[in-house]
Amino acid sequence: MGALIVVGTTVLMFAVVHRLAHHRPADTAPVVAPSGTAGVAPSEVIQLAPGTHIAQITGVPGGLALLLTGGGPDRVVIWRNGALSADTVLSVAP
């Protein structure tokens, strides 16, 4: 039993050292949010009322669904292929 612990610990330490010594760069570039809207086409910017925040983000086929709350009525925005696809205002049924 003691021999298995020693062998297992040695293998684990070798694997960690090997990964640290042979680090490879990530396959994808990091995503960086722009500091402003310079160079961004107007169709790529969602206009929001002051006080609006993203309450939930959900993946949909080919894009994202954003639930926006605050700053007016709640809205669901569908963002596909880098552009606004749909914008729906949520309301309470009478």
Properties at a glance:
94 residues, alpha+beta, four-stranded antiparallel β-sheet, 1 helix
Topology of this protein?
Elements lengths: L1 H20 L31 E8 L2 E7 L5 E6 L2 E7 L5
Antiparallel strand pairs: 1-2, 2-3, 3-4
Description of the structure:
Helices cover 21% and strands 30% of the residues. The protein has one helix at residues 2-21; strands at residues 53-60, 63-69, 75-80, 83-89. With 94 residues, it is an alpha+beta fold. A hairpin with a 2-residue loop joins strand 1 (53-60) and strand 2 (63-69).
CA-to-CA gap between the ends? 71 Å
The shape, in one word, is: elongated
Fraction of helical residues: 10-25%
Residue share in β-strands = 25-35%
Biggest beta sheet summary:
4 strands, antiparallel
Largest sheet: spatial strand order: 1-2-3-4
Separate helix tally: 1
**Mean pLDDT reading:** 76
**CA-atom Rg in angstroms:** 24 Å
What structural class do you assign from the helix and strand content? alpha+beta
Q: What is the domain total for the residues?
A: 1
Query: What letter string, H or E per element, gives the SSE order?
Result: HEEEE
Give the number of DSSP strands. 4
